[in-house]
Amino acid sequence: VRPGLDFLHELKAGRRVAPGKRVVVVGGTDTAVATARAALRLGSEPVVLVPGRREDLTADPATVGEALREGVRFEFLVSPIGLQTAEHTDDEPPLEAIRSMYVEGEGGTPHARLTGVVCVRMQPVGDGERPVPVQGSQFFLPADSLFTALGTEADFECLPADITRKGYQIK
């Protein structure tokens, strides 16, 4: 579980990244779409979970259309509510399971692996209001990796005091 932007930076830096076969990306941003498309190009089967409706996406509509044509799956009005982990997966060869339980540089401490995301379907309430969970709609989505891409805001603390910000414009 990590930020999608970190994943994209690693790819751009030329690092070898293996997100696994089943990738879940949470968010409706351009970063979410870019993360899913990058995972798809690496051989993964990405699913983008969007808590809102398609029209609520902040990602570029043309890019979303391209991602859909390429094979990225979007689940709208779905929100993650939990993670499921295990020491290894049932279909994993025993030696690979042992090898993958240990993270390099952490003193040989075993760690649990992500096996999936527990999700809930959401229902729109009204214009401008956040969707609410639908009672009894929980489901499990198998996943090897989960990337978050919910949006970030710039840190303007480094700007001189006489520069002000109004919305997204700096004056």
Kindly describe this structure.
The protein is of the alpha/beta class and 171 residues long. Helices cover 22% and strands 30% of the residues. The chain contains 4 helices and 11 strands. The strands form 3 sheets. A 5-stranded parallel beta sheet has the order 1-9-2-3-4. Strand 3 (45-50), helix 3 (61-70) and strand 4 (73-76) form a beta-alpha-beta unit. The chain is globular and about 55 Å long. The mean pLDDT is 82.
As a percent range, the share of helical residues equals 10-25%
In the sheet with the most strands, the strands line up as 1-9-2-3-4
Give the low-confidence spans. none
> From N to C, what is the helix and strand string?
EHEHEHEEHEEEEEE
Give the averaged pLDDT, no decimals: 82
- Rg computed from alpha carbons, rounded to a whole number of angstroms: 19 Å
Instruction: Please report the total strand number as a whole number.
Output: 11
Quote the beta fraction.
Answer: 25-35%
How far from one another are the termini? 37 Å
* Biggest sheet record: 5 strands, parallel
Shape type: globular
Q: Please count the helical segments.
A: 4
Q: Which structural class best describes the helix and strand composition?
A: alpha/beta
